[in-house]
Amino acid sequence: MRQLRILTLLLEGELSTSEIEEYTGISGPRLKRDLDALLKQDLIEQKAIIGGELILSITQNGIDELMREYPMLKDLLQEMEQVLCLRFGC
């Protein structure tokens, strides 16, 4: 789920690792593991290094992965809404 958050964020454009950390709230070591995994899967790519910090963007493979996951995530959110509405009223 964290990796999907990162991919979704990168749909808006290139970001530095510190920006990704700030926007997602994912801590440094955990973020590094997630970014390394996404890089290895060719879902994101390194665009530059500025001030010792990576600048990353989503690849076409990353966009394709989000499109594959979207229907499942959409269904999950709808189910959550239904359960919460039954439990707490909407």
Topology:
Elements: H1 2-10, E1 15-16, H2 17-24, H3 28-40, E2 44-50, E3 53-58, H4 60-88
Antiparallel strand pairs: 1-3, 2-3
Largest sheet: 3 strands, antiparallel
List low-confidence stretches: none
Spatial order of strands in the largest sheet: 1-3-2
DSSP, total strands: 3
In percent, how helical is the residue content? 55-70%
Question: What's the alpha carbon Rg, rounded to whole Å?
Answer: 15 Å
Structural class: alpha+beta
- State which percent range the strand residues make up: 15-25%
The number of distinct helices, counting runs of at least 4 residues, comes to 4
Head-to-tail CA distance between termini: 26 Å
Please provide the ordered H/E string of secondary-structure elements: HEHHEEH
Shape: elongated
Overall pLDDT score = 94
What's a quick, concise take on this entry?
The protein is of the alpha+beta class and 90 residues long.
Structural features, described:
With 90 residues, the protein is an alpha+beta fold. It has four helices and three strands, in the order αβααββα. It has helices spanning 2-10, 17-24, 28-40, 60-88, and strands at residues 15-16, 44-50, 53-58. A three-stranded antiparallel sheet has the order 1-3-2. A hairpin with a 2-residue loop joins strand 2 (44-50) and strand 3. The longest helix is centred in the C-terminal third of the chain and has 29 residues, at 60-88. The chain is elongated. The protein starts with a helix and ends with a helix.
